[in-house]
Request: fold
Amino acid sequence: MSNRYAAEDLHAFVTQLFHRAGLAQDRAAVMANIFLQADLLGFTTHGLNRVSSNLSWLVNGETRKDGEPEVLSDRGSCFNWDANFLPGPWVLSQAVGQALQRVEEHGVVTATLRRSQHIACLAAYLPPIIEKGCIGILTCSTPAERTVSPQGSRDALFSANPIAFAAPAGEYPLLFDISMSVTAGGYVSRAKREKRMLPTECLKDNQGQLSKDPAAFEEGGSILPVGGADHGYKGAALSAMLEVLSMGLSGYGRGDEQSSHDDEANSVFLQVIDPQAFGKSADFLRQTTALCNLWESCRPDEGSDSEVRVPGQRAWSARSRQLEEGVELYPSIMDDLDPWADKLDVIAPRPID
Reply:
């Protein structure tokens, strides 16, 4: 059976799931859009793959269905909200919308969120920023989570601490979404579910020994920071920086007691930059386009039959193609959503033949 679905059918389906789980229709549609955007861009571990867990949080009361974020501070060009466990994709979408409204006046707008329910794929929030001709920087951390060990330690300290960046360029934006760990927790979980080893030794067991077995992580081990066993001090330093920006500036992090309810709560840092605040848009685009073109023209390694990959090129192409031809879902995603469709009495979409 095909795993390809029309994008609009998936959006309608997931919107109805969230609505039946208790969200207002407009909020449910925003949630569905963020998860769909992740799969359109190719980030399959944090797109529709995360719908099931978000439905569970709503049904179990771990995610707040109603209300608005509390404004803790607002100086126009910067603001801080306490989301108090509102749905992450919805509340962060509201913050992005606010930043885009304000950036024309302020040039640079910075926002932080505390106690947002898990925000899923960071790259999924970037398309509207790109389409407005702006630069987007987004990072988050999870105060209750310790999964990534610092260089030279067997003990986990950091969360995965992803960072996403996008800047308009030529035919596609420069865009990436990467964690400060060698691999993301979603890939470790997927490998465990599929009973396979990871491709490299990107884990440590609880004795500090390198491993590619996902069971080592589940049994008290950790994920290596970016840089791996040899240069992980670089990833650890970057992890610390991102936790300062997200936890430190939002005022919610490792200095606070965490309850079991806080398990997936994110602290978030968002910055939107309008290049026209610094000069002509054409000058900015000339530089970013030149960078991407030069990157594309770099010679591949000897013996390689693939082109040099520029971050954003493949993702933006996949988004355009899948909007037109259908979204290729990872095989396990509909397996996880079908029980929710039955439980919430929502008709699942038909795949495209």
Observations:
- Residues 228-250 form the longest helix (23 residues).
- The chain has a mean pLDDT of 94.
